[in-house]
Amino acid sequence: METERIKEQLKRLSLYRIAEIFEEEAAKASKVKTSYIGFLARLVEEEVLAKTDRSINARIAKAKFPQIKTIEGFDFSFQPSIPEAFIKELAELSFIGKAENVLFLGPPGVGKTHLSIALGLKACEKRKRVLFTYANELIEQLMAARVNGSFGKKLQILGRLELLIIDELGYLPINKEGANLFFQLISKRYEKGSIIISSNKPFEEWGEIFCDDVIASAILDRLLHHSHIIAINGPSYRTKEKMGATSNN
């Protein structure tokens, strides 16, 4: 049939959304006597929307979020130390355009990872290049790249990201080699790309994280030069959920 031939040709052109809807849209257009231009405009609009959705979904997949978290799903009433208006301002993503950094500091379970992911998701929706990684995994990858001779290439890949999210910095100590490689990464991205870091350690204890006060100072110097710092002091969401589950049993 003619419609099947049209479908196949549309698919060959990667116009999958138009291939899916053109018969139904043609019937609607015929019924209400839509102009040829109007009919074509409708098909093109649907294809653009579909490609945008696919692009966003692909970026979310490439970002490697451990789970999907949103600003709308965050309970600011449970964590009043977090400035809600400022977080929503950050969600407008002007900090990425300025290559500024965001640092979330606080004890485990207070929402640092949730907010980091939520900002990363907003960036994906704006079709930014984003990657989420845990600090210990990042250090392992950098050290492996150094051993196999691909460290320079790894730095280039990480340097091209518009937003790099590093979670759980400070939970495990980083040896001097790892600290040196991490410093090179921070230097590579300095004033070129944004970083979000979450840490359970205050800045004065970062020398312990990197096992070297000098390297820690150099890293902080670059991170804090253009940065937004959110210190969270409050109860743990995970403890709250656990207590809620216990009381319901």
From TrEMBL:
Transmembrane segments: none annotated. PANTHER family: ATP-BINDING PROTEIN RV3427C IN INSERTION SEQUENCE-RELATED (PTHR30050:SF4), CHROMOSOMAL REPLICATION INITIATOR PROTEIN DNAA (PTHR30050). Signal peptide: none annotated. CDD domains: AAA (cd00009). InterPro entries: AAA+_ATPase, DNAC/IstB-like, IstB, IstB_ATP-bd, P-loop_NTPase. Pfam families: IstB_IS21. Keywords: ATP-binding, Nucleotide-binding. Residues 98-231 form the AAA+ ATPase domain. One of its GO terms (biological process) is DNA replication. The keyword Ligase does not apply. Belongs to the IS21/IS1162 putative ATP-binding protein family. This is ATPase AAA. GO terms for molecular function: ATP binding. It comes from the Bacteria.
